[in-house]
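Reopening: structure tokens for the iron/sulfur cluster complex, inputs below.
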Amino acid sequence: MLKESCGIFGIFGHADAARLTYLGLYALQHRGQESAGIVVSDGNKMSGHRGMGLVADVFSHEVLKKLSGHLAIGHVRYSTTGSSIIENAQPFFVKYSQGSIAIAHNGNLVNTLRLRNELEKSGSIFQSTMDSEAVIHLIARSNETDLEKRVIYSLTQIEGAYCFALLTEDRLIAIRDPRGFRPLCLGKLDDAYCLASETCVLDLIQAEYVRDVEPGEILFIDKNGLHSVRPFSGMKHSFCIFEFIYFARPDSDIFGKSVYLTRRRLGMQLAKECPVEADLVMPIPDSGNYAALGYAEQSGIPFEMGIVRNHYVGRTFIEPSQYVRDLGVKVKLNPVKEILKGKRIVIVEDSIVRGTTSRSRIRTLRNAGAKEIHMRVSCPPHRFPCFYGIDFPTKDELIASSHTLEEIRDYIGLNSIGYLSLEGMLNLMYLDKKEFCVACFDGNYPIPTNEEVSKYRLE
Ligand code: SF4
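Re-run output (same inputs, fresh job):
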């Protein structure tokens, strides 16, 4: 299973800032389940709490009560740089010569190894093994006197994919990298402003969507309102297309478009490109649900839920070892034998990474009596890793990087397999195809990196 790097939330001007941040993080839980944190400010003093685990486990009623203030940022994390330990939980919160500052980051920087070496040589002491901490050091060490210039200076030093929420005693700052890899939106709740990785957060806290934070924009929010600078705009965009396919919640709009509708269109295009005669179309819940709906609609083959998901299995149960991963698949998903027995089925998936999970699921479906199993994937084969905030396995572990279509079909145990074409996928996007990053499919990385990009590179 692929993992997103993180989700971020920020709010300015609400008496219940910590509690709203908690709800915001709740809605972003799909973007990271390893740790969660909130930092608040009452205008003078900042305080925070971070912990390992899910949002609901990290924050009790008592903890939230202590986090008083009208501005806050929050973070849920899945590690793409650094181990899953409390020191690496965010937001980072430090005191320096100009006051206090906290940072929450979604994305992945690609030049931090060099940057960190340089900073350490000149005396910086790092508390974590996370790339985001370098940004705090750069802000603290800048010779500029004013915060705006310090922030701009730090951004000139970093490369990669980033959305940041920064908090000082009296300011909230939203930053999106010039290529706009990850989504970030601005909302309004009464007189308060908020920002979030996805619009589903705004729905939950009943905030109104104002606009997306633009690629290259640095948005300052304080008692005087909003103020933006765009020192890095005009660069070619690289919106992560995989946010549409897999990561973002279906009830969100990202990059200005509905995730649900985009996934359904992907499924419809898939049915046009890879038709097959079958009795029913089904997803492996919950991934692939909306693409499967589109496939069924376009092909005229009935849609069924041939597998039922047990929603009460904690994600933390799924350990990274292969044995437990296989076990986890069976505990989480149970086939409905009466639906599957003797049927020719089309399974619509949103990705195949190593192929091991699919293989185990197909075995379960065969045991449940399915006569033929055809798999259709609503994106092209993943052949390359991601350096911009999605935790892909190495190139060697991606099944499509070293196996032909026929070999993948045989390994997973299918009657047939078909992937959506790159052209087909890009042509149905509402935006121009040049606006997207598709590096994990075609290997054309928008920001080349010479650094080793393992998530443990800073350890
Ligand atoms: S490489 Fe793939 S997952 Fe990574 S940012 Fe680009 S499209 Fe998204």
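Residues 181, 240-242, 386, 388, 390, 437-440 surround iron/sulfur cluster (CB under 6 Å). The first strand starts at residue 3 and ends at 4. Marking as resolved unless the reporter disagrees.
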